[in-house]
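During the second year of the project, the team shifted from modelling isolated chains to modelling whole assemblies. The rationale, set out in the original proposal, was that interfaces cannot be judged from single-chain predictions alone. As a representative example for this report, we include one of the complexes processed in the last quarter. Its constituent sequences, exactly as entered into the pipeline, are reproduced here:
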Amino acid sequence: MNREKYEIKASSSFLRYEFDSIGKYGIIRKGIAFELINERENIYNLAFGDIDQVTKYINDDVISNNGDLPKVMATIIEAIFDFTNHFSDSFVFFKGLDKRRHYFYNRIIFDYYSIFSLSFNIFGMILDENEKISLKQSEIYRKDKEYDGFLIRRID
Amino acid sequence: MEQEVRFTRNGAKITVDTSLDDRPMLNPKKVEEARKMFANVDLAPLREYSRRMAPSKKKTA
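Output from the structure prediction step:
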């Protein structure tokens, strides 16, 4: 994967990552965090967004539109590879909270499918009316479909 | 505090920075929402699929 990517800082636990997006609106600190959300099934939630300068939380409601989307996407992919180097048996789940994020994650998977599918099983996840994962409706990822979220697992 | 530097197989530079350790980066409310999404989910079928896929991928590599 020879696409340009940003330098990344990682916590020693490999659960937290940061990098600086440099674009038309200047330097924007980005965060990627993996949080264990289901211990029995070993599922980690991936959150990505701008780091709020006050709270230091990841703000995943904001699309900064800094003009460097391909580089940002390539950097997120690298963080996922690094995390799963250390947590290879885990599932990683990510979903967009709104339409723009929904599109963002669908586009990452679509664009990187050829690389990603060599190293990960990718499952397209559908939520039911109660906002819970519906395994009946979820399936192995298909490029011609959009999903509510994605669950991936390292296989290489 | 920055420590070890490593490069991924794709050439990305990753520096371990212990100042990131234990820093809460996620809104607890959103983490709770994600937990609820997967409450009582049994991923055994997906795990089984992964297990079956892994050897075949290695053979073709």
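The first strand of chain A starts at residue 8 and ends at 10. Chain A has a mean pLDDT of 91.
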